[in-house]
UniProtKB/TrEMBL annotation:
InterPro entries named in the record: AA_ABC_transptr_permease_3TM, ArtM/GltK/GlnP/TcyL/YhdX-like, MetI-like, MetI-like_sf
GO BP terms in the entry: amino acid transport
Name of the protein in question: Amino acid ABC transporter permease
Organism (species): Halomonas huangheensis
Record-linked CDD domains: TM_PBP2
Regions that span the bilayer: 100-125, 146-167, 196-219, 231-257, 277-296, 351-369, 375-400
Amino acid sequence: MMARALRGFVEPLRSRLAMPKPPSSHVPLWRRPAFRALIIQALLLAGLVALIAMMVGNALSNLEARGITTGFGFLGERAGFSIPQTLIDYSGDSTYARTFVVGLLNTLLVSGMGIVAATIIGFAVGIARLSPNWVLARLASAFVEIFRNIPLLVQILFWYFAVLQALPSPRQSLSLMEAVFLNVRGLIVPAPVPEAGFGLTLTALVIAIAASIGFALYARRLQARTGKALPVYWCGAAMIIGLPLLAFVVSGAPLSWVMPELKGFNFRGGVTVIPELMALWLALSIYTASFIAEIVRSGIQSVPKGQVEASRAIGLSSNITLRKVVIPQAMRVIVPQLTSQYLNLIKNSSLATAIGYPDLVAVFAGTSLNQTGQAIEIIAITMAVYLTISLSVSALMNVYNARTLIKER
């Protein structure tokens, strides 16, 4: 019995020892997928570096053959040309660096104005497209289909040449209360001149904005805790308007106005909004708003109908349902696409060169480049500026998008 048990244990062990040894698990280095992938990436990187080095060397050789020096020293040289719209002090004796700042500020101005106007118009039209009013819905649909399908450059040219250039001359200006004038030279409005004590009004405005934000946060927490809703918008508007107005009156109205006057063939005094800015702003705002309207419509329609029915079942009005139930949920769909439209608007502002608006491309990558010949440096700076602006806007929108996402527990 004992011998049989030992035999039953030894035989399998002997047969296992007699089996041939498996092949070695060692694989040559060149046959490993990870090693091959590393080699391929290294070769591609080396090829890219070599290509860039060849392009840079070729560019430097061409510049040297033409007698063009490289570097950014030209930024300190005198520009010698005028710019029709400047948000900072500028003259013909200013440097190219000053020209760059002027063009950058003009680009940021029209981009910011366009984003605000396009957002307001787009949301209004997008909501109107879903209105039960047949006429309003069809008008909104017509707006989208018309302006979305006409190229932006054509719209810019239309507003500039067909509308604004058809306005009367300065002597036959369209006027409002003899204070605001509209003519072929642009829109002329009185210029505000702050005097002593105006700082109190600005301080009151800052305090009012901070107080309205604090009140909004308090109202949100109160509603989450008790369900009681406070009139946040009305109270906020009252603080932002009322407190600075009160400070303005108490300080003795420390603000005077320089009225525009027609002298010769043009107006003197006041602030002139050039027609190039007006045409570009209108075209960018309306064109982008047609896309935003479709984004808003699709975002609202993505919200389940049960949400609307439930809100109406508990007695919420249509206005509150839209603001408190539908729009907050629709923003999860709207914000990512809205970011793309904002970036497109900023980049499309470079079409301003078609009508002579002095943006970054026109005054820096245009006139400055033609005068200095520093093509590589100027184009590189311009590309870096647009890249920085776009990444900054994208980062801000991503932060806002993260706040609109559904918080899972």
